[in-house]
Design goal:
It is globular and about 60 Å long. By secondary structure, it is mainly alpha-helical. Helices cover 65% and strands 11% of the residues.
Length: 125
């Protein structure tokens, strides 16, 4: 039955490299960083203010991971003092519709998810 489902949907099983990439894009901070940078380039501290619960260490790691994956670029400007700005790349821009869809879906469906969680937890109590 799985083979039929895969053939009909046009998708195959998720490979290890795909799973790794999805894990990195859907981690705790990446969606928020990408969503912010799709709006406009930002400096590090602007991102920290926009996502106040993220630690400096986590934001640094997230930006490096997104840069390594080609979603974000780090641009050093030759101003005085030297400034570093993070920008979405053309590859990263291709995620904007998906990010919007995920954030919209979560906002719309969060109440139903919370009700399902409560029912589940009540049945287990």
């Amino acid at each position: 039955m799985r083979d039929t489902d895969e053939a009909e949907s046009g998708h195959s099983q998720i490979t290890a490299p795909q799973r790794e990439l999805l894990d990195q894009l859907l981690d705790k901070w990446s969606l928020q960083v990408l969503d912010r940078l799709c709006g406009r380039p930002s400096r590090f501290n602007e991102l920290r203010r926009a996502i106040p619960v993220v630690t400096q260490k986590s934001l640094t790691a997230t930006l490096r991971r997104l840069e390594r994956n080609g979603m974000v670029e780090r641009v050093v400007t030759s101003t005085r003092p030297i400034a570093v700005e993070y920008r979405i790349t053309p590859l990263g821009t291709t995620l904007q519709d998906l990010i919007d869809a995920l954030l919209g879906w979560s906002a719309t469906n969060l109440p139903a998810v919370e009700r399902a969680r409560e029912r589940f937890d009540d049945e287990r109590a």
